[in-house]
Amino acid sequence: MTDSSRQRDAAARRRRTWLSVVVVLVLAVGVVLVVREVRAPADPPAAAATASGTPATVAPTTASPTTASPTTSAPTTSAPPTPAEPAFDRARLSIDDPASPWVVVNKARPLAPIDFAPADLVPIGNGYQLRAEAAQAMDAMIAAAAADGLTLGVQSAYRSYDYQVGLFDAQVRRFGEDRAEVQVARPGHSEHQTGLSADVGGGGCDIESCFATTAEGRWVAARGPEFGYVVRYPDGAQDVTGFKYEPWHVRYVGPELATELQRTGVTTLEEFFGLPAAPGYPG
């Protein structure tokens, strides 16, 4: 082999050696780049823009179909509050004026004037009279009871001052003053004189305590307030009203007050209006 041949072979071997080195280096660099790509997070848009020198355009983020959007609840509509019923106005009508349907007369509260006489009395049959409003209500109550198969009748109604004088004196002569004052009011202290009270009967019992046990008596106690009538002298209230139990004695006060008394369970006008009890006459 000549020297020139040997030189050519040596040069070829050097080229192959360098080529092998270059290939190895290229492969190594490629591996490094792949590893970095796998390990390193993607550059944020701002960094990419800085690196390239071109302002980066950030695309608006669009929620994917699987991303839940905020739930917008429909406004809850609640029922409007029920307005509270106004308190019963106990001062709406006078309890002192004898012409008022709310007048309270008892042993401690005489009528003023003491010989008061109503100006609007009307007949209700059998020679009896009541004030016009009370008479109309009495007719309606009797008719309603009849519709329920019951028979109510008026046994007494308006009594004048002079009539009460004679009645009271007769009771005193018969029973003595103490007993008479439990059964009959003195003149000027009687509810009958107002033209707003009546004695009713039916069911085979008139102006007696047995009226409370009749169908008519029970009906009057329960349904009377619808027509403005209350049992004025209830059982167990003699120490308040001054009179023994009289289930037959009804007093017209108007449906508004009568139903309020029934609703509250207050059985006497004295207690309802906060008046002193009147078990006896003063002095």
UniProtKB/TrEMBL annotation:
<dbReference type="GO" id="GO:0004180">
    <property type="term" value="F:carboxypeptidase activity"/>
</dbReference>
<feature type="region of interest" description="Disordered">
    <location>
        <begin position="43"/>
        <end position="87"/>
    </location>
</feature>
<feature type="compositionally biased region" description="Low complexity">
    <location>
        <begin position="45"/>
        <end position="77"/>
    </location>
</feature>
<dbReference type="InterPro" id="IPR058193">
    <property type="entry name" value="VanY/YodJ_core_dom"/>
</dbReference>
<keyword id="KW-0378">Hydrolase</keyword>
<dbReference type="InterPro" id="IPR052179">
    <property type="entry name" value="DD-CPase-like"/>
</dbReference>
<keyword id="KW-1133">Transmembrane helix</keyword>
<keyword id="KW-0812">Transmembrane</keyword>
<protein>
    <submittedName>
        <fullName>D-alanyl-D-alanine carboxypeptidase</fullName>
    </submittedName>
</protein>
<keyword id="KW-0645">Protease</keyword>
<dbReference type="Pfam" id="PF02557">
    <property type="entry name" value="VanY"/>
</dbReference>
<feature type="transmembrane region" description="Helical">
    <location>
        <begin position="16"/>
        <end position="35"/>
    </location>
</feature>
<dbReference type="InterPro" id="IPR009045">
    <property type="entry name" value="Zn_M74/Hedgehog-like"/>
</dbReference>
<dbReference type="InterPro" id="IPR003709">
    <property type="entry name" value="VanY-like_core_dom"/>
</dbReference>
<keyword id="KW-0472">Membrane</keyword>
<keyword id="KW-0121">Carboxypeptidase</keyword>
<dbReference type="GO" id="GO:0006508">
    <property type="term" value="P:proteolysis"/>
</dbReference>
<feature type="domain" description="D-alanyl-D-alanine carboxypeptidase-like core">
    <location>
        <begin position="129"/>
        <end position="254"/>
    </location>
</feature>
